[in-house]
Amino acid sequence: MTKVNQSRDSGTTQRSLTKQRLVETARELFYQNGYEATGIKQILAKAGVNSGSLYYFFPTKEDLLLAVLERYKELLWPMVLDPVFDRTGDPIEQVFGVLEGYRKMLLATYCRQGCPIGNLALEMSEKSDAVRKAVAENFEGWRVAIRQCLMDAGDRLPADVDRDRLATLILTTMEGGVMQARAHRNLEPYEASVAMLRDYVDRLLLHKSGGVSECAG
Amino acid sequence: MTKVNQSRDSGTTQRSLTKQRLVETARELFYQNGYEATGIKQILAKAGVNSGSLYYFFPTKEDLLLAVLERYKELLWPMVLDPVFDRTGDPIEQVFGVLEGYRKMLLATYCRQGCPIGNLALEMSEKSDAVRKAVAENFEGWRVAIRQCLMDAGDRLPADVDRDRLATLILTTMEGGVMQARAHRNLEPYEASVAMLRDYVDRLLLHKSGGVSECAG
DNA sequence: GTCTATAACTTGATAGAC
DNA sequence: GTCTATCAAGTTATAGAC
Questions:
Q1: With a 7 Å cutoff on the CB, does A1 touch strand D?
Q2: Which domains does chain A have, with CATH numbers?
Q3: Which residues of B touch A118 (CB under 8 A)?
Q4: What are the pLDDT digits (tens) for A70-95?
Q5: With b meaning 16 or more CB within 10 Å and e meaning fewer, what string describes A143-170?
Q6: What is the value of pTM for the model shown?
């Protein structure tokens, strides 16, 4: 009784339910426990799939991780950006709305879970170049979206402020803040980091029309 | 032929050479490969020590990690701060000198190695509360030293700028910048983050004597 | 304090029937 | 595409002689 199984993968969409379930389960477990600390058996048990099926789709554990990282790229807009961008059109508020989203995540998990990409960045960058690149692409997607907000802010920001580098600092603030909040199991380091970043941006917004020098005193 | 082995541990100092070697080797390997990915066998081989000796000193692998984290606390001043503080007495330059030290480390390792504490923070915070706390203490030592610099800067910084929170942002910038530099295997994200932080601090230094409002325009 | 040998278990991955 | 059974190697940790 050969089931007529959905098989064509148009683009990144997985038509196979088993494959989908595998990626989703692996995503959760890698997130909660890290890549090394998550066993294939564990993934299999939670997904309700047998070893044979997993290895039919993914030759190695690393290939499964790469699929997970592709999935995270797909989720950037629907999960991270859209909910914020739908609520406000002000590009500066969009930026801090995204940061507020991570604060809510920390709050909801009692500072136990942060950014899955950041976790993998530090754990895997030296172990697999393919993974490192997939992580970098995830960072880049996030950063480019934030940079677009900064560009949309137009002349509200001083002309000489580098939007590209400021977008990098914003991602830096999120990742560094999340890291400390998790280590201290306390929101304060995250909130402090974002508050100081906000102070910086506020100062930039107020002094938009030139360098700092013009009103030194 | 029972060797008269040095045994008393006065404080944190390890009088046993074997123990010292074990901690040092574990420190390197945990740094390079992460905690989970490093095997006891690997540590034993590199240190030239037998399994029996390791377990004589450390009941579990986690205890070894805790000793490593204690060691990092001891190393903060001699390895991270003193080399910078000896070169300059200006507290603001001390802060950015420390950040420059991490840049040099990234440069020397082609962006392969960053901050060992940051790695452990993300890998271990959910797995062991003892490790999480030891990581938090390491962060706190670093942050307190930087905060002292900011306090030493006195009225060069505006009175209403929260030194404590600014110190947090500085650690955040280091950790977040290092993370992205490693993921992209490129110094730019780190340099961009630090440059923007410097711009922020420069603006604070110039506008020390009050709020932003006084010269809005 | 250090040695060797090994227990007890888990790991990622494979084979081959269906 | 999915199933079961299993491999070979690796894991942390222990036992007991010296």
A1: no
A2: 14-59 (1.10.10.60), 72-207 (1.10.357.10)
A3: 122, 179
A4: 999 999 999 999 999 999 999 999 99
A5: bebbbebbeebeeebbeebbbebbbbbb
A6: 0.93
